[in-house]
Amino acid sequence: GANVLVIGAGAVGLLVAAVTNLTGTSKVCITDIILERVDFAIANGWATKGYVAPPGLTTGLEIATDLKAKLNMLNGYDVVYDCTGMEVCVQTGIYAARSGGALMLIGMGSPVMTLPISAAALREVDILGGFRYANTYQLGVELLASGKLQNVEKLVTHSFRGMEGIQTAFRTAAQRMDENGQLIVKVEIETGSDSVEVE
């Protein structure tokens, strides 16, 4: 099984980690700037290890070097999924991948980035792109129906009812933690028989 790194523990990154765990990987590690998101992934069994970059590290090379040392993956990861779209995270993904590994770009962030292409080319790191929702719905429905995707319902951390809850839902979705100290991942608004997700 492959060793996998997921960069970004938002709703998309958490789901990527959860699904990756079903593919027979040896190790799924997750990183984010918010410790509670990393802990959430580990507590739900979607990741085996986690990493939060110390505040003093600012470049992709610094973060990747520290991450690989702290997670005991000095040779790098077979596959890295960037679920943020942030330039520094994509840079980190290139440096965190092993020679001959792959970086999959899932996050939709900055349209133009400065990347260490020489580092990718010299180490033969494949950089792959894919629109995050393309060709995924059938597999997603099958995984949910099979019951194999454990704890996925926990991604919705906050739910509000009716139209009167819309403003509160949007304010909640803009926060990392609620007033009770609970992590906010996904917020939904239940309007009658339907629910709407807020990001």
Plain-language structure description:
The protein is of the alpha/beta class and 199 residues long. Helices cover 32% and strands 26% of the residues. The chain has seven helices and nine strands, in the order βαβαβαβαβαβαβαββ. Strands 3-2-1-4-5-6 form a six-stranded parallel beta sheet, sandwiched between helices. Strand 7, helix 7 (166-173) and strand 8 form a beta-alpha-beta unit. Helix 3 (60-70) crosses helix 4 (87-96). The relative contact order is 0.14. The mean pLDDT is 91.
Q: What are the key terms here?
A:
three-stranded mixed beta sheet, 9 strands, six-stranded parallel beta sheet, globular, 199 residues, single chain, alpha/beta, 7 helices
Write the layout of secondary structure elements.
Blueprint: E1 3-7, H1 11-20, E2 27-32, H2 35-43, E3 49-52, H3 60-70, E4 77-82, H4 87-96, E5 97-105, H5 117-122, E6 126-129, H6 137-146, E7 156-161, H7 166-173, E8 186-191, E9 194-198
Parallel strand pairs: 1-2, 1-4, 2-3, 4-5, 5-6, 7-8
Antiparallel strand pairs: 8-9
Care to give the gist of this entry?
32% of the residues lie in helices and 26% in strands. The strands form 2 sheets. It has a 6-stranded parallel β-sheet with strand order 3-2-1-4-5-6, sandwiched between helices. It has a 3-stranded mixed β-sheet with strand order 7-8-9, with helices on one face.
Largest sheet: 6 strands, parallel
* Strand numbers in spatial order across the main sheet: 3-2-1-4-5-6
- The helix/strand series, from N terminus to C terminus, equals EHEHEHEHEHEHEHEE
Number of strands: 9
- Measure the end-to-end span: 33 Å
Helix count, per DSSP?
Answer: 7
Beta-strand percent range:
25-35%
Gross geometry:
globular
Mean pLDDT: 91
Helicity, as a percent range: 25-40%
Structural class: alpha/beta
Poorly predicted tracts of residues = none
